[in-house]
Amino acid sequence: DAGVIQSPRHEVTEMGQEVTLRCKPISGHNSLFWYRQTMMRGLELLIYFNNNVPIDDSGMPEDRFSAKMPNASFSTLKIQPSEPRDSAVYFCASSPQGYEQFFGPGTRLTVL
Amino acid sequence: GESVGLHLPTLSVQEGDNSIINCAYSNSASDYFIWYKQESGKGPQFIIDIRSNMDKRQGQRVTVLLNKTVKHLSLQIAATQPGDSAVYFCAEISGGYNKLIFGAGTRLAVHP
Question: Which residues of A touch B98 (CB under 8 A)?
Fold first, then answer.
């Protein structure tokens, strides 16, 4: 079992550029979550999908952030345009029926 | 994998001693709690969970205690080992789906 796969592992970009983070959940899991981790705010839930449908996006900070899940094996989190305050580690997690969530290794985003 | 250098409370223990990590949760209606471990450079990893109808649950070297009266959760690690060094988060399930609300975290440092 490969676990949750995220790419890229590191991303350095300049302010104003578009950033796309990718996630492949564990096969058979029907829930997918995007989190952001920062020094100031800790781990925050950004958006939750169930069966590829966005259920709760109340954590998405603003319109510059968008997420999609076109199929059960792939999701993207896009930031356009990116800003320095978006610098953080972004985690994707997936879950089968039930409560336990399995986290990916994260993507460290640095916006200069 | 990635993690962030969070400015967290730190618990320092000697190898072989028992560790107790505490957590206060906010929602008295939460019915499920999880402890996660985050090692440097990795995503959070599930350790143990407990439902609100229980006050104690034991795993391998770990015990979780739940006091609903004061909304307090603790994680006890027996015979702490250097590999236990990590940041530990408690999380509560709140809401109509498996939405995790994470605590701020505690850094556990194990010294030989």
Answer: 31, 95, 98-99, 101
Query: What's the pLDDT at B95?
Result: 64
The residue length of chain B stands at: 112
A73-111 pLDDT, tens digit per residue, is 999 999 999 999 999 999 999 998 777 899 999 999 999
A34 near B CB under 8 A:
no
How buried is residue B42: exposed, middle or buried, by Cβ count under 10 Å (0-12/13-18/19+)? middle
DSSP string, A62-80: STTEEEEEEETTEEEEEES
Low-confidence ranges of chain B (pLDDT < 50): 1-6
CB nearest B42 (choices: A42, A43, A105): A105
What is the DSSP secondary structure assignment for residue A25, as one 8-state letter?
P
